[in-house]
Structures
1.
Amino acid sequence: MPNPLPDWLSPPPGIKRPEFCTERDVLAALAADDAGPAELAALLSPAADALLEPMAQRAQALTVRHFGRTITLYVPLYLSNYCSSGCVYCGFASDRTTPRSCLSEADASQEMDKLKQMGFEEVLLLTGERTPKADFEYLERCVAMAATRFHQVTVEAFPMGVDEYQRLSQAGCAGITLYQETYDPEQYERLHRWGPKRDYAARLEAPEHALQAGMRTVGIGALLGLSEPVMEATRLLQHARHLRSRYWRSGISISFPRVRPEAGGFKAPFPVDDTFLAKLIFAFRICLRDMHLVLSTRESPQFRDGMAGVGISKMSIGSRTTVGGYVEDRAKSAPGGQFEVSDQRDITTFCNMLCTHHLQPLFKNWDAAYRDAPPRAAAAFTVCS
């Protein structure tokens, strides 16, 4: 049976359903000083379609107020595409015919050196679910290597307990990214056919375990297209509010990935178009004024250009979803990626675009010295990267 939802994941009772919201409700949400689930419902309602421009203006004003005219940049580095789970939407699922690869520590070191030469100061290390080829100890060693090069090291990997997250933090990891994929327990069970990722509760609890362990940042999100998008958005907002209420000194970020073509040919049962995604980003900025909202290279150049600084405050660039892929010789022989990258611009082209939009590319707003602060003192820092 699917896992029951925890109480904090459901919105407060009495909130008007989006289809019953009116233009007056949308205008009230735009003017609200403390927007929450009720305002989100109004901002995602059909009535909001006629007010997208005021929503965009409000989102942009709030983004500038809290982040200035900057876009924080990071780069993902896939360490391994071995996986033990059977997610129907993922190119790394264990039944895919994609050739498997795992970077040796020497190769990982070369990839990191290349990213450093490209100017990056924040790297996101990724693996599939836990396997003998890419287990916790391997990830811990890669984090330690990255921490000697980059000011900000985060990981997107398998869920862990508090003890393992503490070890990663001690190795130099500042945060994690972990998408719930879908907040619908029944759909979650259907989409995750086998493997450790079938455990809905373990995945939902992992971001909190990371914060309990002393991680300074946590990124969450839903893979848009897997379930009804307004429900996903509502529960994602509740998840973010729950984490912030308990770990208010930590940095919480929200990502908006959409299902992209991958090796298994999966088609999204609830496709999300550009208009709704834009509305979703505006609504989250209005509800979560000072949280980083993140947009990856899954999205087209045109869409990313339009969202930069208009709700979105953080982006990846130059991404490869293959294992490695940044060192030239290795890039030519890299196996297939987890999904197709849509924005394939290089760093210079992308940064020039930001400049034409009067936005400053920000490669570093965190210093590695903070990683060495004693745990009690570290808890007093407010993280914004």
2.
Amino acid sequence: MMKESDIHSYARQLLDAHGAMAVAEAAQKARHFEEQGDSEQAKTWRRIEAALMLMRGPHEK
């Protein structure tokens, strides 16, 4: 399991690379792993998705 600091670091890198599409990218990865039955990877990607949503702020969708 990734440490929280690693989650935020990875989320920042993803945001820098994908911009507004970063949240969708993380959600897509999480769903892929959920469908494959890899709950640990899916959980990590959901944490990354949540971190990205916090970084976006409350007024962006």
3.
Amino acid sequence: MNISTPIRMEVKNFRAIKKADIIIDGITVITGENSCGKSTLSKLLYLYCKSVIDYHYPVSLSEELMETYSTLSHMLREEPKSSLRIYKDTPFKPSKKESLQPIGINKVIHLNTLIDTKQQNAYWDELLKTKEEFLLSRETQDCNLSDLISNEIIWGEASFKADNLSSKYIFKIKDGKTFDLMECSAGIKAFSTLQLLLKNGSLTDKTLLIIDSPESHLHPKWVVDYARILVLLNKQLGVKIFLSSYHPDMVGAIRYISEKENTLNTINFYLAEKSKEIDLYNYNHTKQDIETIFESFNKAIDLVNKYGI
């Protein structure tokens, strides 16, 4: 179980966000209507953590680091009254110097789209390829979750093949047939991405995994399966997960599967609710209570009744 120090993110007066004070420990789920700032929070968290990680664990001060830091700085300058602070969640308020110290993770991954080698080949190849040093120690790794994905959900296995000339993602089903993963369904790609990250050792207790609305590409049954894998990633490997979702099945599955797996104490839900200002939102911490979140989802049923027969 993940027992590392929680991360805290405070955002004020930025784009659609009036105020958000969010704890990231175990699995954090943010939800709310469209244009309430969910993706903005995900991007801010990713850019900040990547800047800090690349600064404190650098091979060199790369162009990528400078570009990441520049993007974050530009975003914040867009709103003069905005503020962003991310730090280890300690009993005291950190100074500026302390807030820039390493935040207990050495890898941050942002999954905001499906694998797409045509558009983002370099990004996905670097993220999902199997590192040689991990491959050498593969036999000592716990591969239970990768096997669970293969044997209980997608009934096949994803792999990444690369040589000096090209790279390719392969999906092999149980009867031995192989396919180009890029030609498979969106659901297969979603689970294959998690499987490849497991295989290459990217998901550990030092990883922060940020995911935007994964349910967009999943059948309702696979929404629940995806939630189960996320809960087990946190429980078995200690991965910190920051998830935006607007799907009742995803929210409910995270809540109740976590309770069954005895990890509910590190699950936090946040609901974006409109402030007094037009089009600005406060993120309210509901802790492990999802009743108010489901009440917001029920507005869709009200609209069906209003516009339907």
4.
Amino acid sequence: MATQWFCKTREGVKGPLTAVELKEKVRTGEVSGVTLVRKDDSKWFPAKEVVGLFEAAFGDDPEKMKKAHETELPGDY
């Protein structure tokens, strides 16, 4: 079974998401580096700890990657 991802914001939990959907949420700004995520039924942790997520989302634009990685969104905890 494929890994399922979940995002936790003040609006609630979003998911399950595929890795591709999570990457798209990073790319569109819905998920930042401080947004809490979890994989399957693991503990919550900041999205910036997902190895390769921000590189995959912004590999062609290091400045956008850095900004998204460090930005706190209004919906983040």
